[in-house]
Every structure is written in C-alpha cells, then in structure tokens.
C-alpha cells in the first residue's frame, strides 16, 4: 500500500476548526489494473501515464495522409495507461466546519493547541506538524464525504470565457486590444509558395488530423485554433520545409498550444504516439525550440474562437446558433484560400452572421455593428465564402470537424442544412 499526504491547512476561528485543501489526501492501492478513460476536459495527471512504446497495439496508427481512416479514432486513453491504479481515492477542494464543544477528544486537542500557542513562540504550522497524531484522526473523519468532489469534470470552455468577456466595463478595451493584436499575429496569405514540397491538400489533411488529436485528448477548442495559428505563422516565416517534416511541425504546434492553453496538457510521449512514433521525443523537442525561436516567443494570438465568444457575450444567442457558429469557424481552419485574407475578427463576424441567419433568419445585430464598427457590407464577402464552405462540408474528403459537431455535445449542428441562398446574393 502506498500512502501520500499533501499540504493542508488548518484555520482557527472561534470554537471551530476549518480544514482547507486543494489536494489533501491520496491513497493508492494495487498498481496493476487499468484506469478508465478520463472525463471531458479533465486531462490525466502525470502520475498515470507511461511511455507509449511500451504499449502493445494490434494495429499500427496510420501516418499522415490517411489518418482520417485509422482505426484508432475511438481509442480510449485507458489503453496507454496499463500501470495505473485499481483504486485511486483523491480528496480535494473541501472546507469543513467541525464543532469542538460537542466532541471531547477534539475539545481536548483544541485546548492543547491553544495552550501551546499561548506559551510558546511556535507558529501554528509548526505546531500542527508537531501534533500531527492529534490531527490525523480529524483528517480521516472529515475527508470521508469528499470522494466525489474530485470526480467532477471541468467545463470545455476557453480560458477567454464568456464570464470574463461579458464584463461591460472591459469589453471594449478587450476588443480593441484583440483587434490590434490580430494584425501583428496574422499569417501571410500565399505562404505555401515558399514551400515547394507542401501543397494545400497536405495542409488540409494535417489540420484534419490535428482536430482528431484535440478530440482524442479532449482538449479545448481554443487549443486547436491557437495551434493552427502557430502552424501558419511558422510556415509564413520559414522556407523549404520538407514534406516529411510537415506532421512534425503540426505536432509541435499542438504541443506548444496545449502547454499554453491546457491545465493538464498531454505529455511529450503522447504527442509522439499520435504520430505512430514517426518522430522521436528528441526530434519533437528540437522542433519545439525552433518553433519558439521563429515565432520569437510571441504565443499570444487572438483567434476566431476568442472573437466569437466575445461577440456572443455582447449579443447572446441560443445553443444551436452558438455551436453552429463555432462549427463554421472551425471549418475555416481547413482552407488557406480564401480565409487567410480575412482577419480572425472578420471570420468570427462572418460565422456569427451565417449561423444566426441559418437558425433565425437574422444577420448582423445593431449591437455588434456598434461594438465592432463592422457594417454588414464589410462582412458579406467572408460570409459568402463561409457559406460555400458550409455547403460543401458534407462532401469534403476530411470529415473530422463535421463528425465532431454531429455529437449531442454540440447539438448536432453539422447536420443542420445550410441555407440554399443568402439574402444579399
């Protein structure tokens, strides 16, 4: 049996003792069984992960180019965690109020603490460590009802959440700053001309694969948008990237974006595994260093996803409209032409317009016109291009995004039929 006790704090107030901890007690029994797959948005802690090469697989993951057909799409993360525990009891995030006057043991203990504090210069923390045998019974009693607290999943929302963005006092300043930043972090349209071995079709396959990886590890949508931004900016600032290294570049972009955006990003060996071990850890780390140097460590970039959430906090919409706008915006990540000629704020406005018209037959609200300064005429070209992409999505060779938004989590919005024509055509 393995036992580990993490930091916890006791705070005194009147006749009550408050016990507060972010991770208070963890007991692991047996080390041979398999842990199930993690819940949405709770990435697996580092202690439960093993090196991917140790895993025996019946079939090899397909390499870039046919990834949309690989049989690992529905793979549970439990398959790569053979050494996890059969019983992992974690007690976290609780605050208890325990009345001492009703329990003689704890009343005596509390009196001992008060006398010690009064007669010595010992701090409360030092006293607690010295009297741990008194406090441990209290600890075991109190943690019994907390087991379920750590099992709650974290909502799949961006760190740039609507709760933050909807603060009216700051919304205009946030928007102004994002509009200024998007001009400094834009990829260059036509950058593929600098890479003779890479075609637009290869990039489409790569982004489709990145969507699958984000889904497989239950990462945030913002992580995907950031990774594609990093990918395009890197290729805009370099030349003659080899075809064989394109997936390595995409994997490094995902690795950096996950480190920036996620609370528990996947480990390095997991990113290596997603490439079917085509690249080594050393190669991926080297590419990460090159990536950061090329981008000059400028990793903060406003994305279409961030602008969309800002717009929807200013003028709220129903769940169908929200998810449809996110779906259309994600589809735009697949194509360089024509969408790199638009700024992320314009693409977000176009996705918002197309979604609201599809669901509610309404376009650009006056509140957003006033907030963004974008009249409908400015958004029309982007809306037209997004509409064409939306119409052709069903027949597109890469279907990862469409499959993602078929699920009930996203209200099945990819199954909504696109309007045949737009009102301004």
UniProtKB/TrEMBL annotation:
Pfam families: Cyclin_C, Cyclin_N
InterPro entries attached to this UniProt entry: Cyclin (IPR039361), Cyclin-like_dom (IPR013763), Cyclin-like_sf (IPR036915), Cyclin_C-dom (IPR004367), Cyclin_N (IPR006671), Cyclins_cyclin-box (IPR048258)
Molecular-function GO term, any one: cyclin-dependent protein serine/threonine kinase regulator activity
Alphabetical keyword list: Cell cycle, Cell division, Cyclin
Transmembrane segments: none
GO biological process: cell division; mitotic cell cycle phase transition
Cyclin-like domain sequence ranges: 208-293, 306-388
Family (UniProt): Belongs to the cyclin family. Cyclin AB subfamily.
Biological role: Essential for the control of the cell cycle at the G2/M (mitosis) transition.
Quaternary structure and partners: Interacts with the CDK1 protein kinase to form a serine/threonine kinase holoenzyme complex also known as maturation promoting factor (MPF). The cyclin subunit imparts substrate specificity to the complex.
Protein name: G2/mitotic-specific cyclin-B2
Organism (species): Cyclopterus lumpus
Species lineage: Eukaryota, Metazoa, Chordata, Craniata, Vertebrata
């Amino acid at each position: 049996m393995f036992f580990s006790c993490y930091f916890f704090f006791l705070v005194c107030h009147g006749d009550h003792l408050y016990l507060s901890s972010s991770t208070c007690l963890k007991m692991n029994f047996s080390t041979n069984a398999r842990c199930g797959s993690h819940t949405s948005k709770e990435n697996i802690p580092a202690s439960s992960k093993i090196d991917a090469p140790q895993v025996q697989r019946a079939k090899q993951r397909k390499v870039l180019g046919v990834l949309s057909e690989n049989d690992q799409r529905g793979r549970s993360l439990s398959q790569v965690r053979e050494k996890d525990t059969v019983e992992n009891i974690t007690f976290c995030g609780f605050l208890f109020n325990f009345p001492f006057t009703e329990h003689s043991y704890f009343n005596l203990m509390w009196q001992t603490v008060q006398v010690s504090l009064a007669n010595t210069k010992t701090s409360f923390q030092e006293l607690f460590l010295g009297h741990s045998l008194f406090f441990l019974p209290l600890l075991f009693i109190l943690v019994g009802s907390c087991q379920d607290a750590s099992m709650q999943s974290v909502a799949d929302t961006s760190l740039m959440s609507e709760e933050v963005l909807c603060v009216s006092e700051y919304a205009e300043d946030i928007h102004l700053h994002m509009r200024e930043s998007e001009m400094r972090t834009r990829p260059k349209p036509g950058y593929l001309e600098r890479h003779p071995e890479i075609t637009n079709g290869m990039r489409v396959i790569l982004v489709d694969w990145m969507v699958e990886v984000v889904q497989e590890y239950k990462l945030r949508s913002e992580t995907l948008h950031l990774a594609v931004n990093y990918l395009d900016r890197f290729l805009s600032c370099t030349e003659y990237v080899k075809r064989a290294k394109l997936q390595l570049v995409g994997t490094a972009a995902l690795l950096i974006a996950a480190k920036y955006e996620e609370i528990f990003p996947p480990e390095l060996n997991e990113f290596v595994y997603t490439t079917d071990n085509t690249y080594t850890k050393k190669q991926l780390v080297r590419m990460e260093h090159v990536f950061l140097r090329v981008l000059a460590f400028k990793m903060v970039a406003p994305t279409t996803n961030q602008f969309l959430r800002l717009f929807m906090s200013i003028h709220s919409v129903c769940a169908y409209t929200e998810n449809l706008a996110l779906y259309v915006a994600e589809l735009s990540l697949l194509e360089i032409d024509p969408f790199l000629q638009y700024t992320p704020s314009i693409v977000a406005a176009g996705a918002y317009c197309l979604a609201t018209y599809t669901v509610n037959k309404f376009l650009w609200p006056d509140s957003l016109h006033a907030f963004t300064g974008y009249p409908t005429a400015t958004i029309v070209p982007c809306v037209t291009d997004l509409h064409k992409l939306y119409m052709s999505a069903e027949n597109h060779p890469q279907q990862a995004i469409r499959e993602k938004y078929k699920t009930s989590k996203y209200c099945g919005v990819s199954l909504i039929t696109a309007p045949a024509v737009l009102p301004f055509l």
